Amino acid sequence: MIGIFNDNFPPILDGVALTAQNYAYWLHEKGHDVRVVTDYAPKMKDVIQAAAYPIDLVPSIPVPFRHPYRYGIPFISPVFLQRWNKMQFDIVHAHCPFITGDLAYSAAQKQGIPMVATFHSKYRQDFEHNIKSRWMVDWMVKHIIRFFEKADEVWIPQAAVEPTLREYGYKGHVEVVENGNDFYTPVKQIETMRAEMREELGLLPEETMLLFVGQHIWEKNIGFILEALSLIKEKPFQLFMVGTGYAVREIRMRVKKLGLQDRVTLLGNIHDRERLKKIDAAADLFLFPSLYDNAPLVVREAAALHTPALMLQESTAAEVIQPDVNGFLTPNDTQMYADRIVYLMQNPEILQRVGNKASTTISRSWENVIEEVILRYRDIQESYKIKHGIIV
Fold first, then answer.
1. 91 — phi, psi (to 5°)?
2. Would the pTM of this model clear 0.90, i.e. be above it?
3. Cis before 78? omega within 30
4. Phi, psi at residue 146, to the nearest 5°?
5. pLDDT surpasses 90 at 152
6. Up-side HSE of residue 96: CA atoms within 13 Å toward CB?
7. What's the rounded Cα separation, in Å, for the pair 2 and 53?
8. Are 309 and 302 in contact (CB under 8 A)?
9. How many whole angstroms separate alpha carbon 359 and alpha carbon 325?
């Protein structure tokens, strides 16, 4: 039994939750027994019923000021503890270092099995948003590093993430294991999806469709996007934003303040993955100037639909971008970002060429990734047995 542990799971939509879901789905598809352990969230009933593998829910409470995220409190529920004590695993994989990560480590210690831990996020920035004490933030980062130090193997989704992990204080070995993508679509189908969605969204033939998908939080540099667009609001474009988060109300206010009401549309969360694929296919350019993200799935998803991303040179997330080959980069300057958008709007053939290249160089199927993951799990299990003198 393979245990997949993460504090969030769909219908909460973020990159790590979707990663955990795809791990579970494809491991099951490849014939492996899988069990997901995740925090309870409202509206999970349909997800649980649709899943072909068990999903165990940890009792939880909302995280203040971070809707829709939850904080697990497993030990208040005798029912959960009874189930927990009966769970048996062969290997556990923690996708976060918090409550479910602690549960994964507990299972590994109790059952004498290896634990893999993936470092996905820039946790310090999350802490600094809600916690004003520098001492407390430092303490929490140290707690995270102690968690990763207990893992039998630590994974990162791309090489550029390693400096962040080192900056936090981790000194151990890391392995790069990329994230996958479930948006692969034939080119002819993309063309049909693009035409249909552009019509549905009311785009004029001469309008360039810009797209942002992700949490609506200021850490994603959404303010940067809006400031840049305010410099070119006379140009024929429409920005569509998909997602939700604590800053939705403030984003609407910023849009109004910058006079972008007729240029920016917030679509909210889109749980229907097929509909999101169509929106990605309809877009001409994906805007993602985040300095917060490590290896965003949304950039890979857009690339699979031939939509290239415009990112920042300084960002960890931009490691996958070859400038003007499979994506676009600018310095961290709103005027330069705005100027590049205008240039690309005026040169649609460049957008098409770079988008085509992005589809073949940035995206990798989850099925392919999981085949690699299975081999790595086996190696980790064998190494664990040798290290601990386990004879089977």
1. -160, 145
2. no
3. no
4. -60, -35
5. yes
6. 24
7. 11
8. yes
9. 11
